[in-house]
Amino acid sequence: MDLKLEVKREKDYSYVTVNGEIDLYNAHKLKEKIGQTMDGMDSPNMVLDLKDVDYIDSTGLGILIGIKRRVSENKGELALVLRSDRIHKLFEITGLINIFAIARSSEEAIARLSK
Amino acid sequence: MNIDTKAHSLVELRIPRRPEYLRVVRLLVSGYVSRFPAPVDMVEDIKVAVSEACNCSMRGADPTCAEGRLDISCSVEDDRLCFEIRDENATSAPDSSSDEASLGLLLIRTLMEDVEVRAEKGGGVVISMKKTIISV
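Predict the joint structure of the above. Result:
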């Protein structure tokens, strides 16, 4: 499945929904689109909704680390929405579960930004 | 568990060493492993690991070597599934200096058994890995 991204800008955060598979082939699209989104953001906070991502590889995980770094540099917060147990397992193995704020729903993710 | 290895013969795939073929590799692995009474989680683990091994090779590929190819093989040995990813153009072990590369190698070593990276005498690098079949 091709990678699709949708960006909504709210007053206090940007909400980016990602759909499809993220791998070495298409991960650069995610990086570019998020970079463009961050350039035009009013607020440095971001929710990255990955609940409709079927597959992510180390390239995608590496890009998420880069996004997290950049959001932090801008003094913002980043929250991820993850529902897939398989993808959650990859976050556990790599230790990324300790780096990212991970939520099961969009409401929970948005709430975590304000904490 | 007893597996009739004759009934599960070797399957090989040769692809251009380009990322647009990663999905083909995942489809192969998924299809191959699904022939066994394996849980879905195990299928997914193997799919991730084999795809990461291909990533290792593709990340380190010489951009001037546009015709590079990868050979992926799937086979059965006793009660274990065996996978090899062979890059005949590689000259050294996968680089693990970037976040992505180190995460990829970590995933392979965590999800699979007996992971080996070896240089071939005649040139090229092979990443091999195994997984014990756990019946559903």
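Chain A touches chain B at residues 21, 23-25, 55, 57-59, 61-62, 65-66, 86, 90, 93-94 (CB under 8 Å).
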